[in-house]
Write a structure and sequence with these properties.
Blueprint: E1 4-5, E2 10-11, E3 13-16, H1 26-53, H2 60-77, H3 80-89, E4 93-95, H4 96-129, H5 134-137, H6 140-166, E5 175-176, H7 183-187, H8 195-228, H9 233-241, H10 244-266, H11 273-298, H12 300-322, H13 325-333
Parallel strand pairs: 3-5
Antiparallel strand pairs: 1-2, 3-4
Helix pairs in contact: 1-2, 1-3, 1-11, 2-4, 2-11, 4-6, 4-8, 4-10, 6-8, 8-9, 10-11
Length: about 325
């Protein structure tokens, strides 16, 4: 099972062991994960299509939402297909370089999701505190640059992860007790000094997660001050309702993240390893699954866009039934 290049102490491949101790129920475990992945892809692709199609959604808030949907799709796709191969077909082997690539995409887009939530908080701050200057402050150029900065921040901070991991000598085996290649899960198989990896990992967590949470906290503190100062109760409710969906997105993203972090750090001996792995997977899959649902339920403009899209399709079908030449005429004019 162990396949090494002894001259460099680098395995040509790793073995992803899935959920150790629960091998007999891998098929059953795969069902909710597969369902969540399908819901993620369908929900977020539907949201991207709606934002692209509906002109009333061509605003900074929805551009950031589109970026969040794209991030969620890439993040889930980086881990779920391989996870399902482990659960369904017992295909546990992953090439060393493929493992590093998976690690890069996973950590880059996890960090990017946090960054997008931070940008969305700043968007809500500008919309509520400076409503008359909203369109002049958050222009398309600013939105694009903010999104690009968030992506490049993730890439530049995560590239050293792969380089630090690649340089390590591996002599503790090549079996990873997980469903995907996580930075520290891979580093722990090394017989070299992983202190640099651990310190850098903590620095990245602070630079991305810590900075984003600080910006979100400051933004909502100022939003709360602005909302409370409004004289009308209706105005206060209307202003704060525009933040409801984003607050829900923050909760479903950061609560599982904190739970995973603290159980891993302080519950390592009392909580079974299989539970750690399942929670880590839920932490990555739950927010992308729920985000489109939350925004669909809590955002009136998205609801109106969905209704408009379906009604226009129904009207077109009725018109085609009444007059079959409509499609031909449309095709001729195009």
């Amino acid at each position: 099972m162990h396949d090494y290049n002894c001259s460099r102490l680098t395995p040509t491949s790793f073995i992803l062991n899935g959920v150790p101790g629960l091998e007999s129920v891998h098929i059953w475990i795969s069902l909710p994960f597969c369902s969540m992945y399908l819901a993620t892809v369908l929900g977020n692709c539907g949201l991207l299509y709606l934002i692209y199609l509906e002109e009333s959604l061509h605003r900074p808030m929805y551009y950031f939402l589109a970026l969040l949907s794209f991030t969620d799709i890439v993040q889930c796709t980086s881990i779920v297909p391989k996870m399902l191969c482990i659960f369904w077909f017992d295909l546990k082997e992953i090439n060393f370089n493929a493992c590093l690539i998976q690690m890069f995409f996973l950590h880059t887009f996890t960090g990017m999701e946090s960054g997008v939530l931070m940008l969305m908080a700043l968007d809500r701050y500008v919309a509520i505190c400076y409503p008359l200057r909203y369109t002049t402050i958050l222009t398309n150029s600013v939105v694009f640059k903010a999104g690009l900065f968030t992506f490049l921040r993730g890439v530049m901070l995560i590239i050293p992860f792969t380089l630090l991991t690649k340089r390590l000598p591996y002599c503790k085996g090549n079996i990873i007790s997980h469903t995907y290649c996580d930075h520290m899960s891979v580093a722990k198989l090394s017989c070299g000094n992983v202190k640099v990896n651990a310190i850098y990992g903590l620095m990245v967590a602070l630079l991305i997660g810590g900075f984003d949470i600080l910006c979100i906290t400051v933004s909502y503190t100022m939003i709360l001050q602005a909302v409370v100062s409004l004289s009308s109760a209706d105005a206060r409710q209307k202003a704060f309702s525009t933040c409801t969906a984003h607050i829900c997105a923050i909760i479903i993203t950061y609560v599982p993240a904190f739970f995973t972090f603290f159980t891993h750090r302080f519950g390592g001996h009392t909580i079974p390893h299989s539970v750690h792995i399942l929670v880590a997977n839920l932490y990555l899959l739950l927010p992308p699954t729920l985000n489109p649902i939350v925004y669909g339920i809590k955002t009136k403009q998205i609801q109106e866009g969905i209704l408009k899209l379906f009604l226009s399709k129904k009207l077109l079908k009725k018109e085609i039934k009444v007059n079959p030449n409509v499609m031909r005429e449309d095709h001729f004019h195009q």
